[in-house]
Design goal:
The protein is α/β, with parallel strands linked by helices. It is built from 9 helices and 14 strands. The strands form 3 sheets. A 6-stranded mixed beta sheet has the order 1-2-3-4-5-6, with helices on one face. Helix 1 packs parallel to helix 3, helix 4 packs across helix 9 and helix 5 packs antiparallel against helix 6. The longest helix is centred in the last third of the chain and has 15 residues. It is globular.
């Protein structure tokens, strides 16, 4: 997927339903990996393209995002950057970031946005110059991550932060291909949402062809993703929760998904 004259993004399958993502700058030779679910999958793409890995950005410490990190770092010598809160859990980190920090990866200024909830250390990465973000396991297409280490109010606060900070035309990459199951659930929350109905049809068609449903865009998610729409009056009405706070409505939606 070409984003500009000098930027290319490769997304590829890892493990059962994870994604690997590489951002490549043709002018500088910079190559950024986001998370490493499986080293071999990255190595195959790097060999195919002839790209040399320069940076690895980590979103959080869960095994299915870092289990290939040690091997890939050893083979490529790439600089590994991840959350400060992961320092005791991820031994390969060369540099750590906290909320609001900027890091320079070749020509790319990358912003670290703390989005805890799924885990306490979760960082979402945003590259404004190419309108691209990797949200790890915080934001999925038509979904959000299960809340393991934080609480639901924290997770809603993180999603609200992404709504504020990521423009509608931002391409959203994330950790997993969960969109088809998320679409079925989303329709139980907002069955009358025409944008959601259209997205669900698109997702079913893509998956029937074995194609990925990602990346999505922030604008599309704001129209269709019930977890992002917890502050919308139409969602409160659909759930019979008129007058309740967005955090309360999000908690109800996440609880329903957990029990689905």
């Amino acid at each position: 997927m070409a984003l500009s004259e000098t930027t290319q993004i490769r997304q590829f399958a890892c493990l059962d339903d994870n994604f690997g993502v590489l951002v490549h700058d043709t002018a500088s030779g910079t190559n950024i990996a986001f998370d490493v679910p499986h080293a071999g999958a990255y190595e195959a793409v790097l060999e195919e393209t002839g790209w040399t890995l320069s940076h690895i950005l980590i979103t959080h410490h869960h095994w299915d995002h870092v289990q290939g990190l040690g091997e890939l770092k050893q083979k490529t010598g790439a600089t590994v950057i991840g959350p400060e809160r992961s320092r005791q859990k991820i031994s390969e980190l060369d540099r750590t970031v906290e909320d609001g920090d900027d890091v320079l990866c070749g020509p790319y200024e990358v912003k670290a946005i703390a989005t805890p909830g799924h885990t306490l250390d979760q960082i979402s990465w945003f590259i404004p110059s190419i309108k691209m973000a990797h949200t790890g396991d915080t934001l999925f297409s038509l979904g959000c991550g299960r809340v393991f280490e934080g609480d639901k109010e924290m997770m809603w606060s993180s999603l609200a932060k992404l709504i504020r900070q990521l423009p509608d035309d931002t391409a959203i990459y994330c950790g997993h291909e969960y969109t088809e199951a998320n679409a079925r659930f989303s329709l139980t929350i907002e069955p009358e949402n025409a944008d959601l109905q259209a997205r669900a049809r698109e997702v079913a068609d893509l998956r029937s062809q074995g194609k990925s449903t990602l990346p999505t865009t922030m604008g599309q998610e704001k129209k269709t993703n019930p977890f992002l729409r917890a502050g919308e009056a139409s969602v409160a009405k659909a759930l019979g929760m008129k007058g309740k706070s967005a955090a309360e409505i999000f908690t109800e939606i996440r609880t329903r998904k957990d029990n689905a």
